[in-house]
Amino acid sequence: MYRWCTDEVEPHDRFDYWREVRSKGLFGVTAELERERRADFYGEFSLRQLGGGGLVELKASHYTVERSTSDIANAPGDSICVYQQLGSGGWFGGMRGSDFAIANGSFATSHTDLPYRTTPLGAGGFHLRILKIPVSALPTQDKRVRELTPRTFDDPTLAPLLGACFADLGEGAAGGNDGAADATSLVQALGHLALIERGIVRPGSRLGQAALRTARLSQARRLIAGHLQNPDLAPTMVADLLAVSVRHLHMLFEAAEKSFSQTVTDERLKQSRRLMREAPERLIADIATSCGFESLATYYRVFNAAYGMAPGDFRAQGAERHSPLP
């Protein structure tokens, strides 16, 4: 991951550097800000290349961005962008069609090589994630992909799916040996969900179904993680929250590394380990209950089967590693 912020530049040079090196050189856009406001400018971003796409998270104080025809000619991208608005909202305009605002928590999509202007709506400035996916990395080569002017997602059923995929990418949830494959499936899912929204990919097509499966599995896992304390956490509950049948939910996990029940147990164990590290004074029985285990005996049995030791021994090992040397 590459990170950068304006603290690395002298205050009087920060906006000029952001405009010429970061905005124009890296993102291919023109940044503008009134001269009297430049001394207080702040900006930071991270960039990760993963799964065939580039994920940017950007925070910056208020300024105006334009992707002009000359910017496009100098730095063509031929990619689709999926935006997740995390700040106070933004305005888009200057392209074919009507202007629009994107609210906090909302999503939008566009093709990189169409002109637009954007600026934050609130005083807090920009805060958004942008996933850029080269058109060449998408299985569909429909010419309409290159005609995607910026527009918000109108289908409310897609928002939680998009949010789950973005969260998994942003948090690095797809780790381990299968991390690269998981990142690729998440990037493809986000791209094809965007194309479903714009009517280019049909939900019932092979690409559409694959995107929906990936996104629903991502959301199901996050729903599990968010309801660990509930001892009644069960497939029926998660299926209802996902608005799918229990059979469909189990089919999602059949293609995954772990079943639904294995995922629940694994998440509860990982949560209990985190709590033992973060709160060494907390009773193990209280931790077991807070993680949704039906009894202390069940917790000890499952923990020992997974890690080959009792919870108390795990806690003692952690205390020994962090104790000062004699």
TrEMBL record:
Domain spans labelled HTH araC/xylS-type: 218-317
Entry's Gene Ontology molecular function annotations: DNA-binding transcription factor activity; sequence-specific DNA binding
SUPFAM superfamilies in alphabetical order: Homeodomain-like
Keywords of this entry: DNA-binding, Transcription, Transcription regulation
Pfam families: HTH_18 (PF12833)
PROSITE patterns from the UniProt entry: HTH_ARAC_FAMILY_1, HTH_ARAC_FAMILY_2
The keyword Manganese is annotated on this UniProt entry: no
Coiled-coil region(s): none
Name of the protein: AraC family transcriptional regulator
Lineage: Bacteria, Pseudomonadati, Pseudomonadota, Alphaproteobacteria, Hyphomicrobiales
